[in-house]
Amino acid sequence: MTEVDEIAYLGRSAHALREGGEGVRLMPPEKESWRGNWRVFQLARIEAMVGETETAIDHLEYLLSIPFDLTVAELRIDPAWDPLRGDQRFEALIEH
After folding, report:
1. For 60, phi and psi rounded to 5 degrees?
2. Please, are residues 41 and 61 in contact by the beta-carbon 8 Å criterion?
3. Greater confidence, 5 or 45?
4. 1 vs 10, 31, 64, 88, CA distance in Å?
5. Angle CA 8–80–82, to nearest 5
6. How many angstroms separate the CA atoms of 27 and 7, rounded?
7. Per-residue confidence (pLDDT) for residue 16, from 0 to 100
8. Which one of 27, 42, 59, 74 is separated from 83 by 20 to 30 angstroms, measured CA to CA?
9. pLDDT tens per residue, range 47-96
10. Nearest partner of 63 among 51, 79, 81, 50, judged by Cα
11. What is the 3-state secondary structure of the chain?
12. Number of domains in the chain
């Protein structure tokens, strides 16, 4: 768990989203592929935690479309994604 995850779990959603977005801004995938995409992954986790379902799923779709260390199987079993379960887009994403 990262410090930003802890901030999100404490209910400080705006702060967590701001920090996650800043991480992506400072290290975008265009600048450094693996680290930048890791930041996108972390932002998606934060978004899922705080109820930003649409943007979390947008980021997951992006990450699954490129070479990255994320699999559909991981999305199926990782409890971090539980807040997205039941959403039609997420369910369609993990069906494949």
Report:
1. -65, -40
2. no
3. 45
4. 13, 25, 22, 27
5. 110
6. 20
7. 85
8. 27
9. 999 999 999 999 999 999 999 999 999 999 999 999 999 999 999 999 97
10. 81
11. CCHHHHHHHCCCHHHHHHHHHHHHHHCCCCCCHHHHHHHHHHHHHHHHHHCCHHHHHHHHHHHHCCCCCCCHHHHHHCHHHHHHCCCHHHHHHHHC
12. 1
State both tokens at 46. Answer: 């934060």
Query: What band does 5 get if pLDDT is binned at 50, 70 and 90?
Result: low
Four-point Cα dihedral 73, 76, 81, 85, nearest 10: 150
Return d(Cα 84, Cα 56) in angstroms, integer: 8
- Could you give the CA distance from residue 88 to residue 69 in angstroms, rounded to a whole number? 24
